């Protein structure tokens, strides 16, 4: 016999119209049979075996079901529906307990599948309220495995194998017969929302990706789809597409790998009329979506048990008072303006999105009634939201690159650098730099060091770069290279909007590649990114011709290193053996592609979550790939050692010959030997050496 915290056990068993055994509940089939029996441990007696049929919505039985249960469709048509059978179970058990003089009992099942994968999901779909006893139970297989660890994994145990093991123990180990239940399985009543930190450790064996969700589904809808399985607090992260809208995917984090494995068995189960795909995911993917770093967001989400509503389409001039007035007194916002969170771009411009906190469901429902009503001259969309979605939206805007990533040059194109940097700055995609914006025009490096305070010890040597405008005057911007990305993030968090003299200074984390591009003369404004002067398609830039090449540098690298771009420029010295200046040349096609990307504004940088399908993919090149490609090229492949330059022609007629090309360049010195016709992608192009 076995003892528990209660002297009475209710052994519970069930079968579905489809798969049973280890695949119970995996095919989304309904219950057709419930069996239970009461065991009185105090009196060492067993009650009457109760067997009740359940009428399913569809009486189509699988062959396995017919073979194992012996039931027919005709019998099931005469049975009671699930709601009536559950009520019958409750009344029967209560009456028998009363006759025994007992007030409580422990529900025992042969594995968790019947409760977690069948009973709770089906009751949720049919909007049935289950008795409390079905939220706490004992898994006999797990308890037996603890008692007899040599019997094998709990999921592989069967009633037959457990009985065989008990018979063996009767002969040699009688003390095994007494065992106190140590683990009680629980089913969460509801999903708890909450914030997740990027520093939190998330086990990859607990995360799944759900795909095909209705766009209007909330975290509670997803939790209902996985009813019976315990989702970790704040463990539902809705994914967004490139436009910041839900893309029908979600990452879900469960409390352990066992629940994750059961969730995978719900692949292609239905939410309404849609089937949902369920796949494995990683903890890293979950943190990229749900993990937060912003103190502002953490403070916003620190209020527990709040209903979150997302507003979209707000006028850019809308103030907190305008939003409160729009929502009205029937839907008061928690803590007034403190319950509003406006989403902004890194430069402070509003995106038109905001999140609102409400203390109860009633207030949130009143707010949702304002969906598509007018504020100013715009209609406003309102949706249910989640803490994970708040984190994701704010993560997207916080991680928006300051500078767009340029695509790599075509593989057959002449290697010319599209991104060059000072020899003292190594480009890369690591975000170990910070950008200061809004500096007083009188600010010097000493003022910046004082502004940084204790964080100055984390600055790299010669790592402070003041950005000047084309007139050589301070632009109000500066870049600082930190020793690591973590230090850069810490400074951006602690110093953002800190005062310097009479102005507050904005601090953003960025990469060395982004910093280098701005230091080359690129500017960021409301219209997007403007290319630096050295990107202009001129054949003989007079400004850069004054800088000869230096040893260890690419021939064109010195040409990019302009004195007006840094407050304390270091002019490269020319070697005696190479007095000739190096010139930079740009392909017209490359320049067109570059401008096409750089004229895009921040809207492009509202990226979709990792691994999720994206409808927009503007930048195929990974950060730093262009600079790495340039650095890998030997100097002779960029510019020929002899005087002259290489010019690339595109759109050459298919029947054009060498004479036609020479005629086209009449009046310029060209080298016939240096002409190279080439075929690429079905079109014709030509490359030739010239002296002008």
Automatic annotation (TrEMBL):
InterPro entries to which the protein is assigned, alphabetical: ESRP (IPR050666), Nucleotide-bd_a/b_plait_sf (IPR012677), RBD_domain_sf (IPR035979), RNaseH-like_sf (IPR012337), RNaseH_sf (IPR036397), RRM_dom (IPR000504)
Alphabetized CDD domains for the sequence: RRM2_ESRP2, RRM3_ESRP1_ESRP2
Gene Ontology molecular function terms on file: RNA binding
Keywords: mRNA processing, mRNA splicing, Repeat, RNA-binding
Keyword Repeat belongs to the record: yes
Any one GO CC term of the record: nucleus
Ranges for domain RRM: 206-283
Domain of life of the organism encoding this protein: Eukaryota
GO biological process per UniProt: cranial skeletal system development; mRNA processing; RNA splicing
Keyword Glycoprotein tagged: no
Similarity remark: Belongs to the ESRP family.
Record-given protein name: Epithelial splicing regulatory protein 2
Source species: Cyprinus carpio (Common carp)
């Amino acid at each position: 016999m076995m003892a528990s915290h209660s002297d009475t056990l209710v052994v519970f068993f069930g079968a579905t119209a489809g798969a049973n055994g280890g695949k119970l509940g995996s095919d989304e089939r309904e219950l057709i049979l419930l069996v239970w029996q009461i065991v009185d441990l105090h009196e060492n007696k067993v009650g009457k075996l109760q067997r009740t049929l359940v009428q399913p919505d569809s009486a189509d039985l699988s062959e396995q079901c017919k073979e194992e249960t012996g039931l027919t469709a005709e019998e099931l048509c005469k049975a009671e529906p699930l709601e009536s059978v559950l009520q019958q179970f409750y009344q029967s058990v209560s009456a028998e307990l009363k006759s025994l003089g007992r007030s409580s009992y422990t529900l025992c099942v042969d594995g968790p599948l019947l409760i977690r994968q069948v009973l709770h999901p089906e009751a949720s779909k049919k909007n049935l309220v289950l008795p409390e006893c079905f939220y706490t139970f004992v898994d006999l297989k797990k308890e037996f495995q603890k008692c007899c660890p040599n019997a094998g994994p709990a999921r592989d145990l069967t009633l037959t194998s457990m009985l065989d093991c008990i018979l063996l123990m009767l002969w040699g180990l009688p003390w095994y017969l007494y065992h106190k239940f140590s683990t009680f399985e629980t089913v969460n009543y509801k999903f708890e929302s909450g914030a997740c930190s990027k520093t939190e450790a998330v086990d990859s064996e607990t995360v799944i990706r759900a795909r095909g969700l209705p766009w209007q589904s909330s975290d509670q809808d997803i939790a209902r789809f996985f009813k019976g399985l315990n989702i970790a607090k704040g463990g539902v992260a809705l994914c967004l597409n490139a436009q910041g809208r839900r893309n029908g995917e979600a990452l879900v984090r469960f409390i352990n790998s066992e629940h994750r494995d059961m969730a995978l068995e719900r692949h292609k189960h239905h939410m309404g009329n849609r089937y949902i795909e369920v796949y494995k995911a990683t903890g890293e993917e979950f943190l990229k979506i749900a993990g937060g770093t912003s103190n502002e967001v953490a403070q916003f989400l620190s209020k527990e048990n709040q209903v979150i509503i997302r507003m979209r389409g707000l006028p850019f001039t809308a103030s907190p008072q305008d939003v409160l007035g729009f929502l009205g007194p029937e839907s008061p916002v928690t803590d007034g303006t403190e319950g509003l969170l406006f989403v902004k771009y890194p430069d402070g411009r509003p995106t038109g999105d905001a999140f609102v906190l409400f203390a109860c469901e009633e207030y949130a429902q009143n707010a949702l009634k304002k969906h598509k009503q007018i504020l100013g001259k715009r209609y406003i969309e309102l949706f249910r939201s989640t803490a994970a979605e708040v984190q994701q939206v704010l993560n997207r805007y916080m991680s928006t690159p300051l500078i767009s990533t340029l695509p790599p040059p075509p593989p057959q194109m002449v290697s010319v650098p599209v991104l060059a940097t000072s020899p003292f700055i190594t480009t890369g995609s690591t975000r170990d730099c910070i950008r200061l914006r809004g500096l007083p025009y009188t600010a010097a490096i000493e003022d910046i060091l004082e502004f940084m305070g204790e964080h100055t010890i984390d600055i790299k040597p010669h790592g402070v770069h003041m950005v000047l405008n084309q007139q050589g005057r301070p632009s109000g911007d500066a870049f600082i290279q930190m020793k690591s990305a973590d230090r850069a993030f810490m400074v951006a968090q602690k110093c953002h909007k800190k005062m310097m003299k009479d102005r507050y200074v904005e601090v953003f984390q960025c990469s060395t590649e982004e910093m280098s591009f701005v230091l080359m003369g690129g500017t960021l404004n409301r219209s997007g990114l403007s290319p630096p002067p050295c990107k202009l398609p001129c054949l003989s830039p007079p400004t850069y011709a004054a800088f000869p090449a230096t040893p260890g540098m690419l021939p064109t690298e010195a040409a990019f290193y302009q004195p007006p771009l840094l407050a304390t420029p270091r002019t490269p010295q020319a070697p005696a053996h190479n007095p000739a200046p190096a010139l930079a040349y740009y392909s017209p096609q490359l320049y067109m592609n570059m401008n096409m990307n750089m004229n895009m504004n921040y809207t492009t940088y509202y990226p979709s979550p990792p691994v999720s399908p994206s409808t927009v993919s503007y930048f195929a090149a990974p950060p730093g790939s262009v600079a790495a490609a340039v650095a890998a090229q030997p100097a002779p492949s960029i510019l020929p050692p002899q005087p002259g330059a290489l010019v690339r022609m595109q759109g050459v007629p298919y029947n054009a010959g060498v004479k036609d090309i020479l005629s086209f360049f009449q009046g310029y010195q060209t080298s016939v030997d240096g002409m190279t016709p080439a075929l690429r992608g079905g079109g014709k192009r030509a490359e030739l050496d010239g002296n002008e």
